[in-house]
Amino acid sequence: MSISRRSFLKVAITTTGSLVAYAHFGSPTLANPQKANPMPFIEMAPNGDITFISSRSDMGQGSPTSLAQIVLDEMDADWDRLVDVRETESADRSIYKEGLTTVGAISTFIGWFTHREAGASLREGFKLAAAGLWQVDENRLTTENSKVIDPVTGQIFHYHELFDSLPTLYLPKVPNFKTREQSTLVGRPLPQLRSEERVTGKARYGIDVHFPGLKVAVVKRCPTFGGTVKSFDKTDALKINGVREVVEIFNGVAVVADGFWAAKKGRDALTVEWDHGELKNHSSDSIASRLKDKLDKPDVVERQEGDISAELRTDTGIEQTGNFSFPFVAHATMEPMNTTAWVTDDKCEIWSPTQSKLDAQEQVAKFLDRKKEDILLHRTLCGGGFGRRAQDDFVIEAVDVSRNSGFPVKLIWTREDDIRHDYYRSLSELRIIGKLNDEGKLTAWDSALAFIDTSPYHFSPGDRGTKDGLFVGMAGINPAYKIPNINLSYGYLTLPITVGILRGISHGYTNFAIEVMIERLAKAGGRSPLSLRAELLAENKRAHKVIEELQKLNKANPVPKGAARGFAFAYEGESGILYQYYSGHMADVRKLDDGTIKVHKIWVVADHGRVINPAGFKRQIHSSIYFALSMMRSGVISLKNGQVEQGNFDDYPVSLIGDGAENVEIKLIDTDAHPMGCGEKMQAGIQPAIANAIEKLTGTEISGIPIKDLA
Amino acid sequence: MINLFINGKSFSFDGDEDMPLLWFVRENAELTGTKYGCGIGQCGACTVHLNGTAVRSCTVAMADVAGAKVETIENISSGNKKLHFVQKAWIAEDVPQCGYCQSGQIMATISFLEEFPNPTDDDINKYHTNICRCGSYDDMRRAIHLAAKLQAEGTSS
C-alpha cells in the first residue's frame, strides 16, 4: 500500500465565506498512487467553527466521531470548535475512488489513510500560509488548537484568519503524521457527535423527510420469495380517503396516498393475485435438509492440506464430530426501510438512509436508464443498519413508485414488510470433524458448510453473480489455528430467497461452530481450552497475545459457584496484511431460579490495532452483547410455503434492557497496528463463548441457535 | 371533528378516526421526533405523553384523543431550559447510538421516574420495556439512575 509522494491541498471558499477543505492524494484502495483523490473533509466557518463532513453512513456505530477525531487531530484543530456534522453530498466515484459503502470495519480502516492525510495536509497548508505572511521559515512554526504559532516571535494566526492566504497548493512533501505521543484526539474517549439532536427529536432520519406535495407509499409485495404479480384490482383501494394512486412496480403493487395510514389502509383493501413461483412448496426444514445433503457434495473445496482422510482413518487419538444448524436471521433495524424519491422527466432526487451511497445512486441510474449525473442521492441518518441498508432494493422501489405514479413519494416499509422482505443472514448447516492425537495435538480438521447462494444478492453490484459474492456466506470457515491436516469445503443452493450481510456476516455461524468444536475437543482430550488455543496460535503473535491476556483474566477471576465458563477466539486477516483483528472472549453463565440460563459476565480482550476512541469501541462491545443475545435467544426467521412466518417484535423478539449480560469487562490491546472498527466484529466471538459456557453448564451439546432457556 | 392539544397548540382533525395518534403527530403536526417502529405497541419508539402519562401512540386511535393534551419529545424542556433533566442524563452518559428509539426511551423514562423516583435495577428491567436495537441499554441504565438523581435534586425543569 503506497500513498503518493506529494500531497495536494485544495480548498474552496464558499459564498458564505467558509472554507471547505479537500486533500488530494493517492487512494489507498487503488494501486495507482498518481491519481489524485480530492475528498471534502471539513468545512470551517469564518469564525473558526468546524463542520465535519461525514463520508460514511451514520447508523450509530460511532465511526463519524472516530473519523472526525482522526482528521482534527492531524490538523491540530480545536475539538471544541467542532459544532456540526454533515453528510457528504459528493456523488462521484472519481472523487472518492470508492462507493462510500459503510460495511465491515472499513470506515476506520480506510479513514486511517484518508482522514489522517487530509488533516496533516491542512495543518501544513496553514503553516505555509502563515509562514508566507510572516516571511519566516515554516519549519520553525508550530500548530495547536486551530492556531499557527511562531515560537520565536510569539505571533499567532488562527486558522480561520488564513483562509485567503491558503491557495490551492502543492505541499513540498507528504506531511509527517503525528506520533502517538503527539496525538491530542486519537485515543481519547470523546463523546459521540450528534447526541443532542438525537435526544431532542431533532435528528432527521430517512423516514422524517418531508416537503410540500410529498406523498407516502406502501407496497404490497408477494409474500412468497420470488413470486410475481399476476393481476390486481385497485377499485377498493382507490375508495379509501386519501389514496391518490395505485401503481404496479417491478416487485409488487404500490399504494400512494396523502399519508401513511391511508396508504396502509389502501394496501389492505387491495386485491392482488400472485404467481407464487417455485418456492411455494418450500419450508425452512426442507431447505435445511437440502443443505445438509450439500455437506457431502460440496461445490467448492476452499482449502486442503495434509491428508485428512488418512489422519481420520487412524484408530488412535480422539475424534469429535459436530453438526450445527443456524436459521435465517433478520436485521430488524429500529427504523424500518424507507426512501423518498422524486423522479421527473430529466432528474431523480432521492433521500435515503443507505449504507451504500454511490452504489445505490448508480443502480438507480441503471434502473432508470439515465446518466448517473442526473441522479442526486442525499444520504440521511440511519436508524440502525447492521448491513441491511447496504442493499439497494428499497431505494429502487421508491424510485419505481415515483416514476410510475408521477408523485414525489416517501416509501415506508411497515415492520412486517421489514421482517418479511429482509436480506437475511442465510440459513446454514455445518459439520466439523476434529481430531486430537494421543499427545493431545489437534491433527485433523474437516469442515463442511452449506448455505443459500449469497452471490445474486450481494450488496455490491460488481460482485453479484461472481464467486466473490459467495464470501458473505462462507467467510470465516478458515480457522486461524495451525492444523497439519485440514479440509475446508462448502456448498450452496441458489434460491430466490434474498440473503445478505448481517452484522459480522457468516463469521456469526462459521466461527461459532469452529469455537464450539475447539472447546469440545479440548474437553475430550483433557486439555485446557485456552492452552490448546494458545498452542495452535503460537505462530501468530497478535492472536497469541490475545489468548495470553484471556489466560490472565481466567486466572484472576475464579468461576463463581454454580456458574460455568466458556471461551472463544475470533479474528480476520493474517500476518502481513493490514486488515487484521483478533479478539478473545470469556463468558460465565448460571442458572436462575426459574430454570433459565443467565449470562453472568462477559470478558472481551480485543486487539483491533490502534484504538481511535476507546469509549466508542467499548460501547460497541456492550451493545454487541445485546445483539448477540437477541439472536441466540430468539433470532429465528422461519419459512413455511415459501413465506416468512414472523412479522413483528411479538414473534421476532429482541433484547430489552434486562436481557444483557449482568457484567461486562473489556480489555483493549492498544497497539500501533492499523486501526479497525469493531461494530460488527464482536458477534463472531461473543456468541460461541456463551454457547460454550452453556454447554459446560448443562452438559448438553449446543448445535447452533436458537438456544433453549437462554434468559 | 376531533380537537386536541399537542405541545400546547390546538389541532383539529376530521379524517379517519381509526388512524393512530402517531401518524397525526408525525404527519399532521409535523413533529417527527416521535418515531414509527412497529405499529403494534411493542417497541415504544412512538411513546408520547397523553394527558401526562406515557403511551405508545401507535396504539392510540384518534377517536380516543378528543380534547386530550399530548406532549412530545420536542416540548419536554420547558421554560428557558434547553434540555430536560432526562435528556441531560442521556447526554452525560452518552447513550444514543443510532438514536432512532431515544425519543421514545426518554418519554418513557420521564413517566417511569414519576412512578419510581428511586428505581432499582429490577424496577428498570421490569418496567422499562422500550426496544433499542443498537443495544445502548448499559449506558441507558446508568442514565436512568442519573436522571433519578437529578430529579431528586430538583434540577427538573
Indicate the mean pLDDT of chain B: 96
| Mean pLDDT, all residues of chain A | 93
The helix/strand order of chain B is EEHEEEHHHH
Radius of gyration of chain A: 27 Å
Fourth-tier CATH superfamily name of the largest domain in chain B: Beta-grasp domain
Distance between the termini of chain A: 47 Å
* Count, helices of chain A: 17
Main sheet overview of chain B: 5 strands, mixed
| Number of helices, counting only DSSP H or I runs of 4 residues or more of chain B | 5
The CATH class label of the largest domain in chain B is Alpha Beta
Beta strand % of chain A:
15-25%
CATH arch. level architecture of the largest domain in chain B: Roll
Class from helix and strand fractions of chain A: alpha+beta
**How would you describe the shape of chain A?**
globular
Give the number of domains of chain A. 3
Distance between the termini of chain B: 34 Å
CATH fold label of the largest domain in chain B: Ubiquitin-like (UB roll)
Q: Helicity of chain A, in percent?
A: 25-40%
CATH superfamily (homologous) name of the largest domain in chain A? Aldehyde oxidase/xanthine dehydrogenase, molybdopterin binding domain
- What is the number of strand segments of chain A? 29
The overall number of domains of chain B is 2
Short descriptors:
heterodimer; A: 711 residues; alpha+beta; Aldehyde Oxidoreductase, domain 4; 3 domains; 17 helices; 29 strands; disordered N terminus; B: Ubiquitin-like (UB roll); DNA polymerase, domain 1; five-stranded mixed β-sheet
Describe, in plain words, how this protein is organized in 3D:
Chain A is an alpha+beta fold and 711 residues long. Chain A folds into three domains: 8-196, Aldehyde Oxidoreductase, domain 4 (2-Layer Sandwich), CATH 3.30.365; 206-277 and 337-412, Aldehyde oxidase/xanthine dehydrogenase, molybdopterin binding domain (Aldehyde Oxidoreductase, domain 4), CATH 3.30.365.10; 284-329 and 424-698, Aldehyde oxidase/xanthine dehydrogenase, molybdopterin binding domain (Aldehyde Oxidoreductase, domain 4, 2-Layer Sandwich). Chain A has 17 helices and 29 strands. Chain A is globular and about 85 Å long. Chain B has two domains: 2-75, Beta-grasp domain (Ubiquitin-like (UB roll), Roll), CATH 3.10.20.30; 85-152, [2Fe-2S]-binding domain (DNA polymerase, domain 1, Orthogonal Bundle), CATH 1.10.150. In chain B, 34% of the residues lie in helices and 13% in strands. Chain B is built from five helices and five strands; from the N terminus they run ββαβββαααα. Chain B has helices at 21-28, 85-92, 102-115, 121-127, 137-152; strands at residues 2-6, 9-13, 47-50, 53-56, 69-71. Chain B has a five-stranded mixed beta sheet, covered by helices on one side. In chain B, helix 2 (85-92) crosses helix 5. The longest helix of chain B has 16 residues, at 137-152. Chains A and B meet through helix 4, helix 6 and helix 16 of A and helix 1, helix 2, helix 3, helix 4 and helix 5 of B.
